[in-house]
Batch of 2 targets.
Target 1
Amino acid sequence: TRLTNSGANLTAFWDSSGRRIYYSSILSGIMDIHSIEVDGSGEGTLILHEPNASLFVTSMLRDGTIVCLYGIGSSDIGIIPPGDKTELKPILNKKNMELNGKISPDEHWLAYESNKEGQFEVYLCSYPNVEETNIKISVGGGHDPLWSIDGRELFYRSNDAVMAVSIETKPKLTAHKPVELFRDRYALLGDIVTWDINPKDGKFLMVKDYSGISGKEGATQPRINIILNWFEELKDRVPIE
């Protein structure tokens, strides 16, 4: 069922009630955050407009807090408090770039990716006090962190591989060595997340990459072959007696 009818609309997230979807829309010439009823009733509602920053929803808390990526050229992570959503509060806005903040199921931890060491890696920090604890999760590059249903694992993308890291939070935050789950070519768009996990069975939902959009070599693009004079070729191959 189509919900939006104008503008370019991206990064849709359910709220905790399951009755509204929050998304980014470029109706005003820059990406703003809007919401709409999932039954299609009513028009999209503007949640927040920042005149100097595009906004992308990356996670939502049960109380309605929105975690978002914001910026132009560079990217940082902020939150939009519940209720009267008219203010963006930065929570990770260092000199480097921070992307794709994902809150853990217990809402005590924030996974994100950053280029503070050069290449993008996945990190994990405490929430809401992001300065209290911060550790590196990925090895050799990482993108698009995603939590398991129970919060005991953190998944991320590393080139064509999907990696898994076991997480322990007691007595202190501990991340075990990443292990490869599977490998294939799936879309990877940097600041727009292109995968998710089913909250019921834990299966991954991914976008198969046929176009080379991930920037890696060897992607094959689907094509349509047109055979001309096929009936003549058929007669040559299968003579009529």
Target 2
Amino acid sequence: LAGLLYHITWLPSDRRPAGFTRELDDTHYEVRDATSDGRPRIVRVRFAEPLEDPRYRWVAWQGKSFATFTPPAVGDSVSLPAIDAKQVLSSIVR
């Protein structure tokens, strides 16, 4: 949550400290760690169904476009590189 897009879409008063939770549809979000100004740094997301369920379509930004992404196995983790929101938006809004 940094850069120009962050500053357009995030209000300083809209803090999400560690421990903040939210339920949306069949998904539970929990902020596990946050910056000193209340921006989420680590978020745990729990889904009602296994990640392999066909209702979910996983994609990740791959430099110039989105591509199919396979989530890591239970107990594993993956780190994705930061993306340039301006580049993403310019590629999908023409």
